[in-house]
Structure formats: C-alpha cells, structure tokens
Specification:
Layout (H helix, E strand, L loop, with lengths): L7 H12 L4 E6 L6 H9 L4 E5 L5 H16 L8 H11 L5 E5 L2 H6 L3 H11 L7 E6 L2 H9 L11 E4 L8 H4 L5 H11 L3 H5 L7 H7 L7 H13 L3 H12 L5 H8 L6 H10 L3 E4 L12 E4 L2 H9 L4 H6 L1 H29 L6 E7 L2 E9 L4 E8 L7 H11 L11 E8 L5 H8 L4 E4 L1 H9 L1
Parallel strand pairs: 1-4, 1-5, 2-3, 3-4, 10-11, 11-12
Antiparallel strand pairs: 6-7, 8-9, 9-10
Helix pairs in contact: 3-4, 9-16, 9-18, 13-14
C-alpha cells in the first residue's frame, strides 16, 4: 500500500504558518478522498495535538464523544458539557502550541447551523488569545464556501489561511505504480484522476481491466457508488446533474442542446451548469484564439472519475448486474477512443511545461479542429499539436493535415507569426516522419517516453 505521496508545498505552507508565534484558524477543504485527513495527520505528526472526526448527530452527543476520545488519548478528564467549552478546555490541557483538527466540520453545520456562530464566539473570546493552531476541514465544497468562507459567514475574517486541496500532480503516478508502464498508468489516471484514495484501490499486480472489474463493476466497491455519494452530499436533486453530465459526454456540449436533452428550460440550465462548475466536475471551453463569449463556449466533463463512471457505470447498470462480461467487453471495445480525450489533456499538460506559452488549449471552427494550440502572445509564436492514442505509428499524413488546418487559424499576422508543430503518439512514429523531424527546427515529436520525461521535470 502506497503511503503519503507528495503534498510537500502544502506541508511547507502549514509549517511556516505554524512557526509564527500566535494563534491561527486554518480552513482546509476539498472533495472526498482527496487527502485532507492524511495531510492534517502528517502535519500533526511531530506536534502536540488532537484530531477529531465529526459526525452528523446532536451536538450534545458530539461533545460527549469529543470528551471520551480526548480522555482516552490523553488520560485526562474534561469537566465541561457544552461543545465550545469542551474544545476550549481540551486546548488548555494540551502543551506548547497544540494543533486541534476538527475534521468534516460541515457535519456539525448540517446538524445545527448555529455552530458557525458558536465557533466564532469561541475563537473571538478564547482561542484567539491562546497559542493554538485550529484546523477546520470539510468535504462539502459548497457548504465550506458558503457557510465558512463566505463574507456573510460569522467566521469570515477570522481565518489566517485557507487551502482547497487539489488533485495530486500527474507525475506522482509513478509513486503509486512504479512497476507499471506509463501507458498503464495513464489508463488508471483516465479512470480515477489524481485522487489518492481512488489510486490506492487499484492493485499493482492486476492489469487495468482486471482492476476495473474489481472496482467500478463491483457493486460492493466504493468506486462503483462514490459518484452518487458525492453528488448527494452536495445537491438536492443529483439525478438532474447526472443527466446533464451524461448529455455532455454524449456530445450535447452547448447550453441549448443540453437543456433539450435533459428537459430543463433553457433559461434555467445555467444555474445547474454553474453548480457543476463550482464543484469542478465540468468546465467551459472556448477556441483558444477566440473570445470567451457565450456563443463560442462548449462544456466538457473535466473530472476523470465522473467521466469514466458516467460512461461505463451509469450508462450500463443493467449489464453490470446481469451481464458483467458484456459490461467489461464494452469497456475493452471503446476504451481506446475514451483515452483519446484523456491523452489530449495529458499532452496539453506537457506543452504547458514550456513556460513560454501564455495560453494553451484547443481550437475549432466549423468542421475543423486542432487538439492543441499554444500561444506566445508577446513574441507572436504559435504552436499547433495533434495527439493520437492508437496502436498505429503516426506518419507524414498527420503532419500534413495539421499544417493544412493551421492555415485556417486566424491569429496575429499569418505571414509574420512564428509557427511550430508538435505531434504526440502513444505508439511512436514512422521512420519517414522521424527523418522529417530531424531536418526541421519547428517540429517536435513526443512518444510516451518523452511525455513522461517532460512531466517528471
């Protein structure tokens, strides 16, 4: 089992804040399984402190449970009864500058919204005068942002810092699966994203499809049901949101076509799309050389776990229950096409490593599309790239097609702008194309080994 991975920058930031000689209230939040608890525990490892995982139950019961758990860990009795006094007394019993972590604080908010005001009073009147590092964490992104971080929240202005924990960097895949090829690692990434807990559910000794059978297609496994749990925590009508994302996956990428597919009024669809954007499950995209006006926008499902789950679990629940062999065969048959979009995103990350580009994205106009267009606006440089996740080597035809399409991209003066080309291929390149690249300064070829090396640096 892989231990704690990466998060060095986050730990360093917490340690710097802790080293200052005053009290601090810190807000740590992010989606389930992203690694908040592991980060907090790693930070606490060499410090005096107490970790408490909240439950959604009566706050009097939570106060009693807090007292009992604290008493067992420190062999110390807390006399207070009210929750805020229990926390204050616990801080007094700890030595030095203690760290107090209250994990899943939104559970208390769901039980009693007044807890936010209670915690504000506790902080203002008592804890802010003591040397204590209090961390409130939460997996409900919407609740943390509205009830804790929003300017209307009683806790607004009290926090010394906040961190929305993001997915791990792509290059850390190798720390989870050092014995697997980069190709196999990217397949796992395409199903799980860089969510640490999801990655740990894949067994290193099994191949990709064996792991999918044991996780996504196993109705007893968390990856089979996690998407529904996540949306139920955040939304009152999760099925509407599932249907919107499914429509996007099926090619209904503009608000009007989405609304028609899911039977929601066009005037109302934006609030649903905005909510999914807030949860970072979908994102807006415009052709990289065009303005971000609504008429140019399309939507795409940006979360890999949800995208894989919607494509292969949500759509095929009957087959998973009654014909599991058919469900896994469906994945085998279409997975290469599915990975095309994943590989495109990985290639964009590779191009972004070259920091001379100010913008990197896709371009399309009518029937024409280019996977990657990268702009250097200051120096009037433009790079055009195509990505192929196929079992065939890429040849001269792809380069010629890319050069033809590049002429249709209106950006700066086409006569004076400096143009470059990049081709990305899972299976490598034909010899003729390799020879062409050796003779040209404006053409770069990236196989999987090259992409892996660039991302690792």
């Amino acid at each position: 089992m892989t231990g704690f991975v990466d998060r060095k920058d986050e730990l360093d930031g917490l340690d710097r804040m802790y080293s200052e000689n005053d009290s601090a209230l810190f807000i740590l939040y992010g989606r389930r399984r992203i690694g908040k608890t592991e980060l907090a525990e790693k930070f606490m490892k060499d410090k005096e402190g107490f970790y408490f995982l909240s439950r959604q139950q009566d706050l009097e019961l939570e106060a009693e449970r807090f007292k009992n758990e604290f008493g067992r860990e420190f062999d110390s009795f807390i006399e207070s009864e009210q929750l805020e006094n229990v926390i204050d007394e616990a801080v007094d019993k700890l030595e030095g500058k203690p760290v107090m972590v209250i994990d899943e604080f939104p559970y208390w908010i769901q039980e009693d919204k007044s807890i936010v005001s209670i915690m504000q009073g506790l902080w203002d009147e008592k804890l802010s005068e003591k040397e204590v590092f209090l961390i409130l964490t939460g997996s409900s992104i919407s609740m943390m942002e509205t009830e804790v971080l929003d300017y209307k929240s009683p806790l607004y202005g009290r926090r010394k810092g906040q961190l929305k924990l993001d997915e791990l960097p792509l290059h850390t895949l190798n720390q989870f699966f050092p014995e697997k090829s980069f190709e196999e690692q990217l397949k796992i990434y395409g199903a799980t994203g860089m969510i640490p807990h999801y990655l740990k559910e894949f067994k290193p000794e099994k191949d990709f499809f064996q792991n999918i059978e044991g996780t996504f297609l196993n109705d007893l496994h968390l990856l089979n049901e996690e998407a529904e749990i996540l949306l139920r925590e955040e939304l009152r009508k999760p099925n509407k949101y599932f249907n919107i994302m499914e429509a996007i996956i099926d090619g209904k990428t503009k608000p009007n076509t989405i609304s028609q597919r899911v039977n929601i009024e066009n005037t109302n669809i934006s609030k649903y799309l905005n909510k999914l954007e807030q949860l970072e499950l979908i994102k807006k995209e415009s052709p990289i050389t065009m303005s971000e006006k609504p008429k140019n926008r399309i939507y795409k499902v940006s979360d890999h776990y949800f995208r894989f789950w919607l494509r292969y679990v949500y759509k095929n629940q009957s087959d998973i229950q009654t014909q599991p062999e058919k469900a896994i065969q469906n994945i085998r048959n279409s997975h290469s096409k599915y990975m095309g979009e994943v590989f495109e995103e990985v290639c964009q990350k590779t191009v972004r490593k070259n920091r001379e580009h100010t913008k990197v994205g896709r371009w399309w106009y009518k029937q024409h599309e280019i996977d990657i267009v990268a702009l250097n606006e200051k120096e009037e440089k433009i790079l055009f790239g195509e990505c192929k996740w196929t079992n065939q080597k890429v040849g001269m035809k792809l380069l010629k097609d890319l050069e033809d399409k590049s002429e249709k991209v209106r950006w700066q003066n086409q006569e004076s702008r400096e143009e470059e080309y990049a081709l990305f291929s899972k299976s490598g390149f034909e010899d003729k194309l390799k020879m062409e690249a050796e003779g040209r300064d404006d053409l770069q070829l990236y196989d999987l080994n090259t992409v892996e090396q660039v991302l690792a640096n």
